[in-house]
Amino acid sequence: MSHAAQLPSQSSAAAIGRASAPLWSVLLFTFINSYASGTMFSGLFFVLEKAYGFSALDNCLIGLVFGITYIIGAVGAGPITRALGQRGLSPRGLIVVLMILAAGLNFLPVLAWYGVEPAARSGMVWMMWLFSGLYSALCGVLWPVVESFLAGGRTAKQLRHAMGKFNVTWSSALVGSLLVLAMFAAEHKMAAFGLVALVHLLSIGVLIFWPARAGEHPHEQHETPPVYAQLLTVHRVLLPLTYVVLYAIGPLLPSITRQVGVSARWQEVVASVWLAARVVAFLTMGLWHGWHGQWSTPKVGMGLLLGGFAAAVLAPALAPAAADGVTNAIGVSLVGLSVFLAGLVAIGLGAAAIYSASLYYAMEVGSSGVDAGGTHEAMIGLGYTVGPICGILPLAAVNAGWLGIAAGTPVTVGLTSLVVAGGIAHAFRTARATTRQRPN
Questions:
Q1: What are the residue ranges in the chain where pLDDT is below 70?
Q2: Which of 35, 150, 152, 246 is most buried, by CB atoms within 10 Å?
Q3: Which domain holds residue 186?
Q4: What is the three-class DSSP state of 67?
Q5: Rounded Cα gap, residues 382 and 384, in angstroms
């Protein structure tokens, strides 16, 4: 059912509802808000470690909060849009409300840090947990609605073109978010939240170019190769697995960068390497279409992802090479840092391959809309949730004395790999079953 059919309509409203939002305006809004949300989802782990002394286990726990609340928001995006539409609030109006709420939420950490005496700041850490849950849920609602405006009124070819630019736009904004965060001195990291609040408010101005409602997605009835349906089945499982890996390593990045010898001033910059690699891969896959319909894409993508994860997480074990003189002038272990950077690049390339293919096959075989976007984002949220759990269990076992400190990292790698390997096996088994059941 289209959004226009779900809302009270008049002829003029229906005409507006069928119009596409200008692509440049959707991309601009996406860039602005991806910068804002990226600062939180990727940079918050660094902020919490430096401002509140969060450990890797603490960061994994707050990552778990991210995932659970993001799923709730994404699953609720469609019902919320319809319920508010029946009360006269258009999807564009909902986005305006979400931007105002996002700006307000980002002032909570600022107040918790600058609004109290330095000695009392540690007692305000509860506000960071509250912020994390509410902000993540809000983002879970936001992005399915934005994606419906991206897809609305665009044909298959136009939509593929738009989605290629969309991927490059949001992923490049995430790189910028960490680079900007790195510009704030350690003692002023909380000021970044005020900047994010302002960014959310400024993005409202872009919405004047959007129709009140997303246009209908003119899903063309055309035959696709049978392999596309099989690949869609596989990638629907691989997509959350990708985020399992990303959010298993995300909370650990502050401690890993420190262990391989990166100074606090440059940790966010170094951690942004995987984000930059993902942008390059998105751009390449948007221009070169030789990967369409190829089984090698998910295989190579997941291979890069898992191999990169193992290299990045185990890189600190190579840092002691500094004792053998394999260091640069400032004492950073060249071996450990090189392996870490190579792992981050592999993670970025693998993540881009899976994400690009997931969206492509969803467009070719499936359909678009707030509910479809909500499902897509909820699957990402599932990865947000399971990934931190793979870090929480080993770290909690180390803290309880059940595992030695040296065993924590290998167990994290093993547990994450086991979850991902099981998911991959399920994905390909399901694809084969689908093929056998399809009538000739």
A1: 1-19, 156, 186, 217-223, 319-333, 363, 366-369, 372, 434-440
A2: 152
A3: 16-437
A4: helix
A5: 5
